[in-house]
């Protein structure tokens, strides 16, 4: 750096950018972090009661969703993801942080919606958009220390293949 060039703004801007990226990666969005629970005096009954999802909470502000194609129909996950993204409203924004892809096993006869949060309200919003009943929702909360990148995973089955509009 030449003498007399002034304040090194490039380094300040680069430092701020790195700080924003680090904070975005390491601080979970609101509603996804769990408080550590005390393990004192846990009985077998307590464990069984905690394995059931709690009652419906309020509708979330944003829902991060991963769409997986469980059918043999090419492009169905992309079409479904576009439908979900187009269904965002003023009260709930639907985000898709990952590209749609395929499930590990095929074919799925019925669509399965997996909630990765402590409540299933986000999964219920997605089920409503796709025209599915609540019985297609399963609850899979990852361990306390696991990173969660999506709130809901949708595994598309043949039951909604005709309901998803074609890409124009």
In short:
This protein has helices at residues 9-26, 44-50, 76-86, 121-130; strands at 62-69, 93-95, 101-102, 112-115, 137-139, 152-156.
Describe the 3D structure:
Strands 1, 2, 3, 4, 5 and 6 form a six-stranded mixed β-sheet that branches. Mean pLDDT is 80; it is low at 45-50. The N and C termini lie far apart (54 Å). The protein has a domain at 61-160: 2-Layer Sandwich (Alpha-Beta Plaits). It has 168 residues and is α/β, with parallel strands linked by helices. It is elongated, with a radius of gyration of 21 Å. The chain is built from four helices and six strands. Strand 1, helix 3 and strand 2 form a beta-alpha-beta unit. It is 27% helix and 15% strand. The longest helix is centred in the N-terminal third of the chain and has 18 residues, at 9-26.
């Amino acid at each position: 750096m030449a003498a007399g060039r002034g304040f090194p703004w490039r380094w300040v801007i680069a430092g701020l950018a790195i700080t924003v990226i680090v904070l975005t990666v390491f601080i979970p969005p609101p509603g996804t972090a769990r408080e550590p629970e005390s393990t004192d005096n846990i009985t077998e009954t307590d464990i069984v009661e905690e394995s059931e999802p709690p009652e419906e909470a309020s509708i979330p502000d944003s829902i991060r969703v991963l769409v997986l194609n469980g059918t043999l129909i090419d492009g169905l996950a992309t079409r479904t993801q576009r439908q979900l993204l187009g269904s965002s409203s003023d009260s709930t924004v639907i985000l898709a942080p990952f590209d749609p892809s395929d499930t590990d096993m095929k074919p799925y006869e019925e669509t399965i919606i997996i909630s990765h949060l402590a409540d299933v309200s986000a999964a219920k919003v997605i089920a409503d958009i796709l025209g599915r009943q609540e019985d297609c929702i399963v609850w899979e909360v990852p361990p306390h220390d696991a990173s969660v990148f999506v709130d809901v995973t949708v595994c598309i089955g043949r039951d909604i293949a005709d309901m998803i509009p074609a890409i124009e």
